[in-house]
Each structure stands twice: as C-alpha cells, then as structure tokens.
Amino acid sequence: MKYKVYILLLFACVTGVLTAQDTAVKFEAKVSKSELGVNERLRIEFTMNKDGDNFVPPSFAGFQVLMGPNQSVSHSWVNGKRSFSKTYSYILNPQSKGTFTIRQAEVEIQGDIYKTTPITITVSEAVNDPNAPPSANEIAGDNLHLVAEVSNSSPYLNEAVSVVYKLYVSPRINVSNFVPKANPTYNNFWSQDIRVSRYQVETGLYKGEQYRYVILKKTVLYPQKSGKLEIEPLALEVTVDVPTNRRDIFGGRLYNQINKTVTAGKRTLTVKPLPEQGKPAGFTGAVGQFNFDVETSKSDLKANESLTAKIQVTGTGNLKLFELPKLILPSSLEVYEPELVEDVTTTLSGSRGTKSNNYTIVPQYKGKYPIPSVAFSYFDPVKGEYNTLTSQQLLVNVFEGPTNNVDTADTGVVKQSVGADENQFRFIKLSTTLSPKLTSVFFGSTLYYLLLLLPLLIIPIAILVGKKRAEMAGDVIGNRVRKANKLAKKYLSVAKRNIGDKEAFYESLERALHNYLKAKLKIVTSEFSKEKISELLLESGVENQVVDDFISILKSCELARYSPSSKAAMEEDYQRSADVISKIDKQLKK
C-alpha cells in the first residue's frame, strides 16, 4: 500500500512537469489605463506564465517610479492541471502631458529571451480627484467601442470598398439596448447596403484584449471622385449596465444603468484616379475583373424571322456604373432598342454577376450577314492596368427570303431598297359590293322625343347635385377629415408599395414623414432634431399625444433598420403613420 502511494505521487509530479512544458510561454504587459490625467497614477504589470530570470524593466521615460518592482508568484491546480504566474508590478507617476511609449521589458525563460509589446500612454490635463474610483460613464467608455472597419483606405476611382460597423463590448459590462443616433452619409460615393438579417454575438480581439462584438451594418462603397473623401461616422445611443462593488441580499452584484453615446469616428479614404496612360478609346468606366462575350440565339434563319444578339459582361466590379459597348450591324438588318438585363448581387468583395444588352434582330432579305467583333475595356485595380477583351466575329445566314441589291456585308447607314412584288398590294380591294343605305325620318322618331325631354330630366338632377355639393362645402369637419386622409395617402403611397422590404419600407416611410412636415410647416426637417420638431408641432396647435406618436414613429424607423421586422409590424407602422398624419393635418392651425 505504501509503495502505491509513492507511485501515484511520482506519476502526478511527472504529469505536472509535462503539462507545464506543453504550455506555451507568455510574457505580456498590462496597464491600469491607457489615458490618464497628469496628476493620476499608473499601475503597470509584467506577467509571465513560466518562471523566468534576469528580468529587465523598460526605462519608463516620461514617468517617475513611485513604487516597484513588487514581485508576486501564484500556483494553482484546476482539474489536475497546474498553472503558474509570476508578476512584476510598478506604480508610475507621469511627469508632463503628452503621449508616451513604455518600451519593451525582457526576461529569460528556459534559456530564451522574451519581450513584451510596447504600450502607448496618453497623459492629459489634471483631473479633479485622481484617487477617486472611475465613474460608471468612464468604465463604459473604456469597455465599449464602435468601430468602422474599412477594407481598403486607398482605392482607385470606382473600386469597391467595404465598410463593416462593429460594436465591441468588454466582458466587464453588459449592453441591454442600442438605438441609432446618427446614420452615416456617403457623399461622393455610390453605396449599396448589405442586409444584416439578425445580430449574432461573436468573440474577437480589440487592441489585444478579448471582446464580444456584433456586426451592425455592412456597406459597399464605390468612390465617384478622386482625392481625400470622408465617410461620416455612425453614432449609437447605448444602454449599458456597469457593475458596482455593491451586492443585493442574495449576494448578487448590483449594476448601474447609464446611456452612453458611441461613434465610429470619421474615416478618410485617399482615392486614386484611374491612370490616363494606356486608357483605351472605348473605356466607359468599368473597374474590376470581368469576362466578355457576344453570342446569338441562332445563326441560320429565314427572312422576317427574329434572333437575339446578346452582349454580356460577367465578373466582379462596378457592374451598375458603366455602359456596355454598342453592337453595330449591317443596315439590311432591322434592329430594335436593346433590353438591359442585370443579375447582380452585392457582397463585401463588391458587386458580382452578369450585365447584358439583348438586341432583337429581324433580317429582311436573304444573304449572309456578319456581326462584327466588339471590344470591351476595363481597369483591373489589382494589377493596376487596363484590359481590352474582343469578341469573335459572328455570321448570320438568312437562307430564304427576298433578295436585296445592297451588299449584305455593308455596316454603314444605308437606306434599304424596296423590291417590286406582284403580290405587294394584294390587300387593296379593286372590286366592291356596296349597297345603298335606307334613310329614316328624324322628325317624330324616338330619338327626337328623347332629345326633346332630356333637358327636363337634367334640371332636377342638377339641383340635387348642387344641394349635395353645398352640404359637403358646409361640412368643415368632414372636409378636413377627407383632405387629411388624402394627404396621408399621398405621402405614404411609396412606403405602402415597399411593405415586405424592411429597409426600403422604413426609408420611404421616414422620408414621407419628413416631406409631410416640410410641406405643412415650410421647414427643412433634416436640419432639426426630434426635440425641435416636437416644439414646432406643439406651437402649431397639435396635441401632445399626437406629437409623441409622431416622434415615436420616427424612432421606430431608425431602430427598424438595425433590428428584424416582420411584414405585420410594417403594416402596423404604416397604419400608425397614416393616422398620425391625418390627426396632425386636422389639428394644425390654419
């Protein structure tokens, strides 16, 4: 029995040693805060997960060392696994305002030298109480970040750039709700939003620390001018639960709830113009990677039968922002205006799909008609050069029909000659079977007496209509109700057509509400806040409840762009908007 105990202890020690050897070496530096006042103190810790020797701290330039190094070592066993931690800590005091870098610390672990990552510290004006604990607002600000991730900060003109807005939340706090406060505008960009159907919480690193994050919005931008272009920020009002040191009677931690406004900040893109050197003569602005082809639905047919010639571009790029080359055909072919067909989807890498012009062609005469080759030019932003693709020449064989005396290979604009045909005017009748028509006497006929009595019948009808119109004109309340309902339908007609498409519906609904205010109050609502709009409506005699309902619908429009919404909810918001517009129109001072 005694030997078994020794064997088990030896086995445990060997297992612990092997486990410790398998763990990767970590040596990192952490600070209590990255921004502080000049009269505050900074705590910095250098932590390693293996025992090391010959620790060399950085110089701490710009700071005075008030305390340290303080060394602490901890051992723990969790589920049979041993963990080790050794920490050197310092208390520093900044000597002046500015931005300082705490350089690398070094330590020797198992014969190898490990270094920490440099840390940047910003020292600002003195704070009122440097020893006071951080407020809930400060804690939320340090642990909540809204970031706009741009795929390419230096694109070419018309090159796709994706912008992904992410809300990063530290595990130290909780977020219970958020509402958009300012949506970004994309001046000088052609933009396409990618729908975010639902918010999915994921984990990732933000400035080297573990965070939870949610993707709020995805947009693909195509810059329309060169130079430095700014992307205005997205701003959110977030409800944050910040933990406190207090606990309830059951031992649970108590939280302070605050509203925090976060913004992604402005982003600036440096847009490069497309090079002039090597630009093809037929270039129409296509930027991306494309394939090009021209094809016909048939190559052999009879005269007066139709065929389709398709000019098609397939690939990835600004498919909706350039024109396709035109098809030039012999004048002996009757050609109709082309039909534009687009099958394009948008992803974070840009728009991809197919764009084509379909020409309907009807040959009039027998012969062989060449369809000349067509050239398509585009700029490849990856290679930084222009490419020109040329289609093959096609031949259309009209094997049956009248003969034309004009050369079928002619591609210029030539009037067609008309050939004589003995059956050409067969539709003209040369002999007729006309017969005389009997005439009747109008005087004394039924039609005569009907026309004679008709004025007598119209007089009482006119009197009744006049009385009805006078009653309607005197019904002031009824007229105002009908006028208000008509006005509501006018402004909300576009929104009603978009029910089922969340983004289009709420965008058109919000535009309808603003256009209504613009028409009734003679103001530009984009220059006013919701508080200002409420004030103007109340001054115009609108009841408080109606004003609150109007502002509530505006907030719903903003919130619905970032949250799922059903068709039933859209129909309910539409009806609410129609009712509110009708009520406002009846209550506004005339």
TrEMBL record:
It comes from the Bacteria. The chain crosses the membrane at residues 447-465. The keyword RNA-binding does not apply. It holds the Pfam family BatD. Residues 1-20 form the signal peptide. The keyword Membrane applies. Keywords: Membrane, Signal, Transmembrane, Transmembrane helix. This is Aerotolerance protein BatD.
